[in-house]
């Protein structure tokens, strides 16, 4: 936010019992959960005129006053890094993020991120009070492909609302080790931080709801080319879910086996966000974009097809994915 504003909300019976921070995040989707929690800590959010904890369960009739202070200048340095812009209008950008690029600054990654590149090209990109100006969703450092960026807070709120309603289409192509018993299905398994390693995510019984739909497109020897469609967007979701099913993504050093069958010379994992679709803020109409596999991933498929041949799994949607 670039100026102070005050928002007042009243709790209804339908919202009773929700955590304070979660309720506000649902009502103000352009604010990150971390930023909301900081506002609560700094008593910029009051319940019935008093400070409260993030975990406070809201009650019917509660009045919330939310003061959004001036956004503090950040230390993000704009950098002249090439951007592959697939689509652009006055509200949004659709970019093709290269493998190896981190989306936004974080401990250990303060430079060379997509956000650094965005701020160089778009210096007026709004920040929403955190270090992720314009960022609506993320893809992992070593995942390539399509990402939407909002140019201003209203566009970001519009896009985040679609994401929360599972109305945004995100499809990936992944090469995994092994074959699935069923050629299509859904992996429904909650995800949270691995209690034994905070750098990793894991399927945990009390984790956040997470569903990945998959469809096998092609079997190549002991590998499978799979289309994954996200219903939810948890950190590392596809990689965690496929590893949970003992079908790790090829080249995944974090969730794959210590000794992978073969790495094919890849310096990244074989995961590519090839399709993205959503309603644009400008016309409220549905639009989607598709990308081919990067050359290094296409080369792996060519190697496998020459070595083992290819068993294409019939599916009306598989043709467009394989023709990318």
Architecture of the largest domain, CATH level 2? 2-Layer Sandwich
Number of domains: 3
Average pLDDT figure: 87
Shape label: globular
Order of helices and strands: EHHEEEEHEHEEEEEEHEEHEH
Per DSSP E runs of 2 or more residues, the count of β-strands stands at 15
Quote the distance from N terminus to C terminus.
Answer: 40 Å
Could you describe the largest sheet, including whether it forms a barrel? 10 strands, mixed
CATH superfamily of the largest domain: Pseudouridine synthase
CATH class of the largest domain: Alpha Beta
pLDDT < 50 stretches: 318-324
Q: What fold name goes in the CATH topology slot of the largest domain?
A: Pseudouridine synthase
**Number of DSSP helices?**
7
Structural write-up:
This protein has 324 residues and is of the alpha+beta class. The protein folds into three domains: 5-68, RNA-binding S4 domain (Structural Genomics Hypothetical 15.5 Kd Protein In mrcA-pckA Intergenic Region, Chain A); 85-164, Pseudouridine synthase (2-Layer Sandwich); 169-322, 2-Layer Sandwich (Pseudouridine synthase), CATH 3.30.2350.10. The chain is built from seven helices and 15 strands. The protein has helices spanning 20-27, 33-41, 114-121, 153-164, 237-244, 295-308, 318-322; strands at residues 5-10, 45-47, 63-68, 85-88, 92-97, 144-150, 169-177, 184-188, 191-194, 197-203, 211-220, 223-230, 271-279, 286-290, 311-312. Strands 4, 5, 6, 7, 8, 11, 12, 13, 14 and 15 form a ten-stranded mixed sheet that branches. The protein has a three-stranded antiparallel sheet with strand order 1-3-2. Strand 9 (191-194) and strand 10 (197-203) form a beta hairpin. The longest helix has 14 residues, at 295-308. It is globular. The two termini are 40 Å apart.
């Amino acid at each position: 936010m670039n100026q102070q504003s005050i928002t007042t909300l009243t709790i209804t019976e339908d919202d009773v019992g929700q955590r304070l921070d979660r309720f506000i995040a649902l009502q103000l989707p352009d604010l990150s959960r971390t930023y909301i929690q900081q506002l609560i800590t700094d008593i910029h959010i009051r319940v019935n005129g008093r400070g409260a904890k993030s975990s406070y369960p809201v009650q019917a009739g509660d009045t919330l006053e939310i003061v959004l202070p001036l956004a503090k200048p950040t230390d993000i340095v704009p950098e002249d890094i090439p951007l592959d812009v697939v689509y652009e209008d006055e509200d949004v950008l659709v970019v093709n993020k290269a493998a190896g690029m981190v989306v936004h600054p974080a401990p250990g990654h303060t430079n060379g991120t997509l956000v650094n590149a965005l701020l160089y090209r778009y210096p007026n990109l709004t920040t929403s009070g955190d270090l992720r100006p314009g960022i609506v969703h993320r893809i992992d450092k070593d995942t390539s492909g399509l990402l939407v960026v909002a140019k201003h807070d209203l566009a970001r709120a519009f896009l985040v609302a679609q994401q929360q309603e599972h109305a945004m289409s995100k499809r990936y192509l992944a090469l995994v080790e092994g074959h699935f018993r069923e050629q299509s299905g859904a992996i429904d398994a909650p995800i949270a931080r691995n209690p034994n390693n905070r750098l990793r995510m894991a399927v945990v019984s009390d984790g956040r709801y997470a569903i990945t739909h998959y469809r096998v497109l092609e079997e190549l020897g002991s590998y499978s080319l799979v289309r994954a469609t996200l219903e939810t967007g948890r950190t590392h979701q596809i990689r965690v879910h496929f590893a949970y099913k003992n079908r790790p993504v090829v080249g995944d050093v974090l969730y794959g086996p210590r000794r992978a069958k073969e790495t094919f010379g890849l310096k990244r994992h074989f995961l590519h966000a090839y399709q993205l679709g959503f309603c644009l803020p400008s016309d409220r109409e549905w639009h989607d974009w598709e990308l081919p596999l990067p050359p290094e991933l296409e080369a792996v498929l060519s190697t496998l097809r020459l070595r083992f041949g290819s068993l294409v799994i019939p599916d009306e949607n598989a043709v467009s994915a394989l023709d990318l």
